[in-house]
Amino acid sequence: MKITHAAIKKFKNTLADNGAKNSGIRIALSAGCCGPLFGLEVVEKGKSGDKIIVKDGINFFLSPDAEKPLENAVLDFSEDSFVFKGSPLEKSSCC
């Protein structure tokens, strides 16, 4: 998974604003209305089995079920939201 500069900048600001500079971001699949969605959560540490990726000093914890769908994806921040581009689940929403 690649993470754009815009996403890194927003994550750093979010962590700093929440007083969570030593925390990280956990990425996991969650249930959506028409299929799985990626969820982002500020956490102090990952869960057992999570893959740890460190980008620009930020720890990202990928749940085992999110790792494969995100292997070729790009996480970006655009228009006030995070967007996963290039994931097989990118167009799964129908709500």
Give the % helix.
10-25%
User: Into which percentage range does the β-strand content fall?
Assistant: 35-45%
Strand order of the largest sheet: 3-2-5-4
Mean of pLDDT: 85
Description:
This protein has about 100 residues and is of the alpha/beta class. The protein has helices at about 5-15, 65, and strands at about 1-5, 25-30, 35-45, 50-55, 60, 75-80, 80-85. The strands form 2 sheets. Strands 3-2-5-4 form a 4-stranded mixed beta sheet. The chain has a 3-stranded mixed beta sheet with strand order 1-6-7. β2 and β3 (about 35-45) form a beta hairpin. The chain is globular, with a radius of gyration of 13 Å. The termini are far apart. The mean pLDDT is about 85.
Summarize the structure.
The chain is α/β, with parallel strands linked by helices and 95 residues long. It has helices spanning 5-17, 64-67; strands spanning 2-3, 24-32, 35-43, 51-55, 58-62, 74-78, 81-85. The chain has 2 helices and 7 strands.
